[in-house]
UniProtKB/TrEMBL annotation:
UniProt GO cellular component terms: Golgi membrane
Family under the similarity heading: Belongs to the glycosyltransferase 29 family.
InterPro entries to which the protein is assigned, alphabetical: Glyco_trans_29, Glycosyltransferase_29, GT29-like_sf
Cellular compartments annotated: Golgi apparatus membrane
Transmembrane segments: none
Principal place of residence: Golgi
Keyword field contains Glycoprotein: yes
GO biological process: glycolipid biosynthetic process
Record Gene3D superfamilies: Glycosyl transferase family 29
Protein name: Uncharacterized protein
Membrane topology, record value: Single-pass type II membrane protein
Keywords (A to Z) from UniProt: Glycoprotein, Glycosyltransferase, Golgi apparatus, Membrane, Signal-anchor, Transferase, Transmembrane, Transmembrane helix
GO terms, molecular function: beta-D-galactosyl-(1->3)-N-acetyl-beta-D-galactosaminide alpha-2,3- sialyltransferase; beta-galactoside (CMP) alpha-2,3-sialyltransferase activity
Length: 305
């Protein structure tokens, strides 16, 4: 029967050489990011702050999802929520938990919960999947259409709800939710009512969206006209590389392309690869980017990729 260390070692999936010593539960911090990523800097706030909106020197030059130019209601929302995080550790060990089917029956729950920071994505279920994905949620990245998770069963009382705005309507939706109003006009209906403690809400800094698009995916032509945008998975990794001292991932990757693409892509539902046919994401480029990060040892994977 595998133990926790065996699971960690088994999960290296060939991206790193075989270790000569047993791999610790969570390896020591690495500091190579600045030498491997172009224009990398930790001088950017993790979340939007009032200073991003009010101070002229910080005015955004880009519109959503790469900046907040022209989003008038951002100011009102920033008054209602906090913009900082209370996580203060000398060495932050983080894991970004993807929603991939390969987490099913992985038995990685205990391992995932052992990290300092656990980042989850979209409406990924935790309830009834704890043995595979754990039960700890430090942050959950979402946008309105993916906010249909169970806040009581799939999050913790102190989990940070990080809104990733792709369009001005996303900011408007959050403003409505903070006031207890209803909102329904989206391509996919988001929650009409969404009770959340303002203390636990943050707004993702669009800087990381632009960094992922132009530095990791190299979407030099497409990012300006928004024909391609990064997935929340890659945004979670980008965020973690700027926030954490060690970054692990689990549950990333899609099943191989087949004739009818009917294999499940999530561990918690039956959504298939066919649903990605009309997506704005370039999953091929993202796979290449993630493999490069693995090769450079900036991140490590607990599941095969």
């Amino acid at each position: 029967m595998f133990g926790v260390r065996d699971l960690i070692e088994q999960a290296k999936f060939g991206s790193n050489p075989e270790p000569s010593e047993p791999v610790p539960l969570i390896p020591s911090c690495n500091t190579d990011t600045v030498s491997c990523l172009r224009s990398y800097s930790r001088d950017h706030p993790l979340f939007l702050q009032p200073s991003n909106y009010f101070w002229e020197k910080n005015q955004s030059l880009n519109q959503l999802p790469y900046g907040i130019q022209g989003v008038g209601k951002t100011r009102m929302l920033l008054h209602a929520i906090k913009s900082s995080t209370s996580v203060k550790l000398l060495c932050k060990r983080c894991i970004v938990v993807g929603n991939g089917f390969r987490l099913k029956n992985s038995l990685l729950g205990e391992v995932i919960d052992s990290y300092d920071i656990v980042i989850r994505l979209n409406n990924a279920c935790v309830y009834k999947h704890q043995k595979d994905v754990g039960k700890k949620t430090t942050m959950r990245f979402f946008y309105p259409e993916s906010a249909d998770f169970n806040q009581r069963l799939d999050n913790n009382p102190d989990s940070l709800m990080v809104l990733v705005p792709f369009k001005p309507m996303d900011i408007n939706w959050m403003n409505k939710m903070m006031k207890g109003d209803m909102w329904v006009r989206f391509w996919k209906r988001p929650p009409r009512r969404w009770k959340v403690n303002p203390e636990n809400v943050r707004i993702f800094n669009p800087y990381f969206m632009k960094f992922a698009a132009t530095k990791l995916l190299i979407l030099e032509e497409n990012w300006k006209n928004k024909t391609r945008v990064p997935t929340l998975g890659l945004l979670g990794i980008t965020f973690a590389l700027h926030f954490c001292d060690l970054v692990h991932v689990a549950g990333f990757g899609y099943p191989p392309v087949s004739v009818n693409n009917t294999e499940s892509i999530h561990y918690y539902d039956r959504v298939s690869l066919k649903s990605m046919d009309r997506t704005l994401h370039n999953i091929t480029l993202e796979a290449i980017a993630i493999k490069q990060l693995l090769q450079d040892r900036l991140i490590h994977n607990l599941t095969y990729f």
